[in-house]
Specification:
- There is one protein chain.
- By secondary structure, the protein is of the alpha/beta class.
- The protein has a domain of about 140 residues: Rossmann fold (3-Layer(aba) Sandwich).
- It is about 50% helix and about 10% strand.
- Strands 2-3-1-4-5 form a five-stranded parallel sheet, with helices on both faces.
- Helix 4 packs across helix 7.
Length: about 220
């Protein structure tokens, strides 16, 4: 028997004095570099800021990193719940900073779960309804989590991401294969188009300085 299911999802807005900024993008997009540069810029402007990331350095985050490195295996659905657990721990840290008026710049947040979840469940880019259902089902897990004041998606081509990853000369994670990176890129761009009010697209292929300038200009 078939059932028609329809639902809306929303998120908890930031009620604190501090600003919550998130940098998103696939591996090789430069998000870590830009998140740290943004904190440096804000500190120079006498705005107390802190860099944070996902997965965290807590027990849950360390377990996630083992799975990403291929040392452990976990079913995709269970992996999503593990990310949610790690993110719940992260929420406590984020809220404690924001409540004090400190600006938080996070390297990834819950938007990435929707993108990687679509990849894990092998949704088709031709099937928009399927993508919406998967994305909303994942995002519904976070409706009580804080929504960032600003989210920036650093857009780079798959070829450029691969070039940067290869340049690091580190062991590849499970999502850093070219085929998966292409699906992740498509997922991020689809998500940015669906949530235009929440996610701003930044050209991540420009110079490091130009990307930082674009983010700062957008925040201002």
């Amino acid at each position: 028997m078939n059932y028609n299911v329809s639902f809306n999802t929303d998120f908890r807005r930031n009620p604190y004095k501090g600003r919550f900024i998130v940098i998103e993008g696939m591996d090789g997009s430069g998000k870590t570099t830009q998140a740290k540069r943004l904190v440096e810029y804000l500190e120079e402007k006498k705005i107390e800021s802190v860099y944070t990331k996902e997965p965290t350095d807590e027990i849950t985050g360390k377990l996630i990193r083992k799975i990403l490195s291929g040392k452990l295996a976990l079913a995709p659905v269970a992996f999503q719940y593990l990310f949610a657990a790690d993110r719940a721990v992260h929420q406590v840290e984020i809220s404690s900073y924001l409540e004090k008026g400190i600006t938080v710049v996070s390297d990834r947040y819950f938007w990435s779960s929707a993108v990687y979840g679509m990849v894990d469940r092998e949704t088709s880019k031709e099937n928009d309804r399927e993508r919406i259902l998967v994305a909303l089902s994942i995002l519904s897990m976070y409706h009580r989590f804080l929504l960032p004041d600003c989210t920036f998606y650093l857009k780079v081509s798959t070829q450029e991401a691969v070039r940067r990853i290869d340049k690091k000369a580190e062991e590849l994670e499970i999502y850093e294969e070219k085929e998966k990176l292409e699906k992740i890129r498509e997922g991020y761009e689809w998500l940015a188009k669906k949530f235009t009010k929440e996610i701003a697209i930044i050209d991540g292929e420009k110079s490091v300085e130009e990307v930082t300038h674009a983010i700062v200009a957008s925040i201002k």
